[in-house]
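Sanity check

After download, print the first record. It should look like this:
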Amino acid sequence: MTRFPYDSFAKDYFKELLSPLGSVETSKDVAGEKREIDVYFAPNADPQIDKSSLGLLGRFAETKALIEPYRNPPTKSEVRSCSTKLFDTCARFEREAKRNDTLIDEDSLPRLWILSPTASKDFLEGFGGELDESKWGSGIYFFDKSWRGAIVVIHQLPVTPETLWLRLLGKGKVQQRAIEEVQALDINNPLRSKAIDLLANLKTTLELNQGLDVEDRDLVMQLSPIYEQRLAEAIQQGRQEGRQEGRQEGRQEGEINERRAIIENLLRVRFGSEEAQLTAIIEPLLALPASEFSSLLLQLSNLSREDLLTRFIQQ
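Expected structure tokens:
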């Protein structure tokens, strides 16, 4: 199992959750180097949501941050590489301050948060990792102050609402429990909706990979009812949107709009963000007879992107 599906999921996850608080860049190039920052965050002066709603992750978002999530524990070399990205980024801000003839504020420099499911005591001690439980609780091992970084050991975080949005990036039972907690949130919670959409997309991505290990198969099984529920919600939402427009535009136009809204919602849930190729199949789908359209809705969870394109574009 490659890291890619989880890497993509983690980047999309942080982009969705942190965007209301500031700007988020994924796979950000490090100037002059062939390296990328997985997630770079810069807070807005006027965030759209209360950062406390994200718990511990919201505290990470109080300053500029480099976030490097790992599905499996990083090696020493990978931790050093993450630190180098931080130092290069800090150096860029320092050069900018020098050009502007201003003093750099140390507290304004970004911090590095390396997320790992587990880490051994020797590994953490090798980087000088120390807990600060009075301020941060358990599971977060800080480097010396001027190094501006920490390793977050997800499986050592306390099981509380404050850590939920980080535990969702854990593995095995830790992630499974976090998924259950997300499902139990109020259905109108926007963070729940974002997380459910991303988890549904992860399930689809994992199913496209050959040779899933036992842990991945267990995750797919847990995500399957979430995915099916999301499809049902997308259909219902599409019908409601179409009926609302139908009241304004007439019955026939309303039926078309209802079908269009259902298709758009289902494609978004099934494949993630809209793509030009998939958008192009909407009109052929609208032209299907009612019986064929209903049959397609039942089949959609088993159809791949290629199946749809072959049937409705390349025919």
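If your output differs, re-run the checksum step. Summary of this record's structure: The mean pLDDT is 85.
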